[in-house]
Amino acid sequence: MVYFSKFFAFKPVEKVASVLCALSYPIFLVHHYIYTEIFRRISLSALSPFQNYLLFFICIAIVLIVSKMLDYINSGVLHDVGNLFSTKDKIPSHEEGKP
């Protein structure tokens, strides 16, 4: 991968790669569940090849959207949990306690 990365050192490619890298774990977490739910409701044998490809790209879009939402929620939860354990605002320093 490192060898091939020098051939794709363009800003748009780097931007897409950085987004996909940031979302790789959320994508891993949600993709099987989403695919299972979609394929449980839709019979692939009843679809034409074009419809199968269209469904594939729709699934990718749904996975990306849900992954981004999961990443956003996770970031918010981690921020709030970090604030719970932050002692900067809860305990006055020695300098603040003096009259």
Would you kindly provide a written description of the structure presented here, covering whatever features stand out?
By secondary structure, this protein is mostly helical. It has a domain at 18-75. It has 5 helices and no strands. It has helices at residues 2-5, 11-22, 24-41, 49-84, 94-97. The longest helix has 36 residues, at 49-84.
Give the SSE map:
Elements: H1 2-5, H2 11-22, H3 24-41, H4 49-84, H5 94-97
Summing up helix and strand content along with how strands pair, one would put the structural category as mainly alpha
Q: Helical content, roughly?
A: over 70%
Instruction: Give the N-to-C terminal Cα separation.
Output: 61 Å
Integer average pLDDT: 83
Coarse morphology: flat
Q: Mind telling me the C-alpha Rg?
A: 22 Å
Beta fraction of the residues? under 5%
Element order: H for helix, E for strand: HHHHH
Kindly state the number of beta strands: 0
Total DSSP helices: 5
Low-pLDDT regions? none
Described by strand count, sense and barrel closure, the largest sheet is: none
Write a brief structural summary.
This protein is mainly α and 99 residues long. Helices cover 75% and strands 0% of the residues.
Primary descriptors:
single chain; mainly alpha; 75% helix
